[in-house]
Design brief:
Radius of gyration: 29 Å
Helix content: under 10%
Number of helices: 3
Number of domains: 4
Largest sheet: 6 strands, antiparallel
Strand content: 35-45%
Structural class: mainly beta
CATH class of the largest domain: Mainly Beta
Number of strands: 39
Distance between the termini: 63 Å
């Protein structure tokens, strides 16, 4: 934890001597603005309901995540009614040394890419008040980056003086602006910061993997050469020339020696920048990456957990995106609707997902707090579906009545001396309905409020009212329970893993009386408990749980073999029915539901695009099921 720091001693800089921090603040020491800092709420507008935590303040201090002690300064430009923000965050008086290259630096971000707040930076030698605001900014950023990014401004014009630094949010009807890691410092000539390093976490054998360094120039001179070493027990040091990284700028630098192994290995790669422009650099220049090769490439399924709520007027967009993904990628996409603030909320799941906006989503719990749309979901899926992963995962369900067992198996294709993985299960349910007002879906796409077209998930949302009455709503992919907890079951995976080792764990679940078993599925997940990332997953419907079959249903599947589509014929008895097609690994590839069906039924199921092979067709109702084989050609 950094503390407010003032240094009044003179700085004698020579050559590439040292960097001096004059003042720093990361807002972690308190839940209010630190001593000496002030804020001005010049606009005096009313924050929108979703950001009413701002109160009457222009800036506040707020944790980056629930329960975290890592804080940031926050302002908003989302008001009711809409308006232009004019909120100022003002530092204490800061002495600027008379010698050296002095700068003010801070990190800032606007968390929503669709509504990016901008800011201006002002420097004044006199106190900044509502009646004496500076008018000439030293830095203007119309829209902040959507991840924390470093910004800086020169203090050359203020050498030997005391200054106040102000950050103004001047945005028009955007969202939030975050600021952190504020500092004033004297920079040295040749200084690099190794911000991060990128290397594939897992790799096939004998495959070249680039080690890419994100390097920031924190010095006064442009960086033209870096000496970089990565070490896995052996040094791989190279001097990389031909660079041109300006002071304050960042760049990606690729190490000339690729990371590659011909056998199954587990490595810890230590990375060090040892020299900048030929001068030794000994600070902020180290990183480490874990790296494993795998003996076999296995399919990776992608899990998107979408935060939603019946109170959320934009959340129908998430339901439409989920439907699109399940229809377009039925075998390797797995979606869960994580509800917030409505009758379908599972508090543990909602808290674990920790989404800051709705609709929002986590992708494999690796990409967090992402925006939601059909196009974005498809992009997230394509970015992750071909990643190399260390294990395949499968699951089977068994049991009768309400008592279900989910047997999960992970087959590892690499080695770990000290792994930190866990197995878990997410229970989901389709066709969830309710009669209470909490099941009414708020709909901002309604033509009564917005001229925006949105079709799917059972509705033309523009033609639907706001809210859509509960009687017209049926909610799919609803997260119902976490078996093993959000982080997975402790001790379900051993720490030492050998290649081709199979790890098994069985979870037990009792289907609540308020749920309908034949609409439920179990999603088995393998979680890296160090990072929280879902490594791989599979989905199995509970209709395969081996419950009693009803031979009198008169079920027929034709044509068989089939291509394009298949018809499922059966006799209904005035109940709800689920018709599902699954592959032999238990993954659902097509599904339809019938409500209050009675008499002879004929359901056409699309199978176009399915791989040639054997599948199972299941008709389920009231805890019973009937299954027939299907050949797709």
């Amino acid at each position: 934890m950094k503390k407010l720091l003032f240094t009044v001693s003179a700085l004698l800089l020579a050559g590439n001597s040292f960097s001096q921090t004059i003042m720093s603040e990361n807002f972690d020491a308190a839940t209010t603005l630190p001593t000496g800092w002030t804020q001005l709420n010049i606009d005096a507008l009313t924050p929108a309901t979703n950001v009413n935590f701002m109160g009457t303040n222009g800036w506040i201090v707020r944790p980056k995540a629930t329960g975290s002690t890592d804080n940031q300064a926050v302002s908003t430009s989302w008001y009711t009614p809409a308006g232009v923000s004019n909120d100022w965050l003002i530092s204490p008086s800061i002495p600027v040394p008379a010698v050296g290259t002095n700068v003010v630096q801070f990190d800032a971000m606007a968390p929503d890419a669709n509504y990016s707040d901008g800011f201006k930076v002002y420097i004044s030698t006199s106190p900044i008040t509502a009646s004496s605001l500076p008018t000439t900014p030293v830095l203007t950023v119309p829209a902040a980056a959507n991840t924390y990014t470093s910004y800086s401004a020169s203090l050359a014009s203020f050498a030997g003086q005391n200054v106040y630094v102000a950050i103004q949010n001047f945005s028009n009807d955007m969202y939030l602006l975050f600021v952190d890691n504020f500092k004033v410092r004297t920079v040295i000539n040749n200084d690099a910061i190794l911000t991060s390093a990128t290397l594939a976490r897992y790799s096939a054998l004998s495959t070249n993997n680039n080690l890419v360094l994100d390097v920031k120039n924190d010095g006064a001179n442009a960086i033209t050469a870096l000496t970089v070493n990565w070490n896995d027990g052996t040094d791989h040091s190279q001097t990389i020339t031909g660079l041109n990284i300006a002071p304050g700028a960042s760049a990606n630098v690729t190490h000339p020696t690729a990371v590659s192994y011909a056998t199954v290995v587990e490595k810890n790669i230590n990375i060090t920048i040892t020299a900048v422009n030929g001068a030794v650099d000994a600070t902020d220049v180290t990183a480490s990456k874990k790296f494993n090769t795998v003996s076999q490439i296995v399919d990776k399924n992608v899990v998107i957990e979408e935060g939603t709520g019946t109170w959320c007027g934009w959340c129908p967009r998430g339901a439409v995106a989920m439907e699109y993904m399940y229809n377009t990628y039925p075998t390797r996409f797995i979606g869960v609707a994580v509800h917030n603030g409505d009758p379908m909320t599972v508090t543990e799941y909602d808290n674990g997902a920790n989404l800051s906006g709705f609709p929002g989503c986590n992708v494999d719990r690796a990409m967090k707090d992402e925006s939601v749309s059909s196009t974005l979901f498809e992009g997230y899926y394509n970015a992750r579906k071909d990643l190399v992963v260390p294990a395949s995962i499968s699951a089977t369900v068994s049991g009768t009545g309400a008592n279900i067992s989910v047997a999960v198996s992970a087959t590892f294709k690499t080695v770990f001396a000290n792994s930190n993985y866990r197995l878990g299960v997410v229970m989901i349910e389709d066709n969830v309905e309710g009669t209470a007002s909490g099941y009414n879906q708020t709909n901002y796409y309604s033509s009564t409020s917005q001229n925006l077209a949105l079709n799917g998930a059972g509705h033309d949302w523009q033609a639907s009212p706001n809210p859509v009455p509960a009687a017209q709503m049926s909610y799919d992919h609803v997260g119902r329970a976490l078996l093993g907890g959000y982080d997975g079951q402790a001790s379900s995976v051993p720490t030492a893993i050998t290649n081709n080792q199979v790890v098994n764990y069985t979870f037990n679940y009792t289907v609540p009386a308020t749920s309908r078993k034949w609409y439920m599925s179990a999603i088995a997940v393998l979680i890296d408990n160090t990072t929280g990332e879902i490594i791989n997953a599979t989905k199995v419907p509970l209709s395969l749980a081996g419950v009693e079959e009803v031979a009198t249903i008169g079920m027929e599947v034709y044509p068989n073999p089939a291509s394009g589509s298949v018809n499922v014929k059966f006799d209904a008895t005035g109940a709800d029915y689920a018709v599902a097609i699954t592959d032999l690994a238990g993954r659902q590839v097509a599904a339809k539901t019938l409500t209050n069906a009675n008499g002879a039924q004929s359901v056409e199921m699309p199978i176009e695009g399915l791989a040639t092979g054997n599948y199972l067709v299941t008709v389920s109702s009231n805890g019973a099921s009937f299954t027939q084989n299907l050949m797709v050609k």
